[in-house]
Amino acid sequence: MKQVCNIFLIGPMGAGKTTIGRLLGKCLKMEFVDSDREIEQRTGVDIPMIFEYEGEAGFRRREADTIADLVRRVPIILATGGGSVLLQENRAALAANGFVVYLKCSVDRQVERTFKDSHRPLLQTENPRQRLEQLMATREPLYRSVADCTVDTGRYSSRQAVREILKAYNQAKRKTEKQDEDAQRRAG
């Protein structure tokens, strides 16, 4: 049976995963962890340096190890990196261990929100907009495939997005509890 007590936030860079994750953590009195910050703490270096020395493949290996550890924490609100869904093992770990929320965000909004952020190695290019469009074309079907709920953060403020997530999360939690009760009745 799928575990629903954890909430995992997926979506592109600039979608608001960290901001919304912190708000959810406060509302639910749950630990909030950002997987990128966790990787930096574990390695002692920032993500651009990991990309520089190990490339994207090295970073993705570290990310997969970190996500595998973090999804076992209960309860937790986890904000993942935008590319975390690229690996099947991450998608499976997220889907099996919590309620997955896809924070959808238009490329225009991503450009606005990441314009001055030098901490994003994949945007260190002459045309960040084009890069964001390429990333979205590859990743969006993966976000959708694993999401239990989608919230458009270009349409809602952070607080409104939290309310939408909580509504869907509570519905999913009630449904899971009812299924558990029904299974116990049948077994018992």
From TrEMBL:
GO cellular component: cytosol
Main location: cytoplasm
Positions with a binding annotation for Mg(2+): 18
EC assignment: 2.7.1.71
Keyword list, A-Z: Amino-acid biosynthesis, Aromatic amino acid biosynthesis, ATP-binding, Coiled coil, Cytoplasm, Kinase, Magnesium, Metal-binding, Nucleotide-binding, Transferase
Pathway where this protein functions: Metabolic intermediate biosynthesis; chorismate biosynthesis; chorismate from D-erythrose 4-phosphate and phosphoenolpyruvate: step 5/7
UniProt binding sites for substrate: 36, 60, 82, 139
Catalyzed reaction equations: shikimate + ATP = 3-phosphoshikimate + ADP + H(+)
Family from the record: Belongs to the shikimate kinase family.
HAMAP family: Shikimate_kinase
Protein name in the entry: Shikimate kinase
Organism: Methylogaea oryzae
Top-level taxonomy: Bacteria, Pseudomonadati, Pseudomonadota, Gammaproteobacteria, Methylococcales
Gene assigned in the entry: aroK
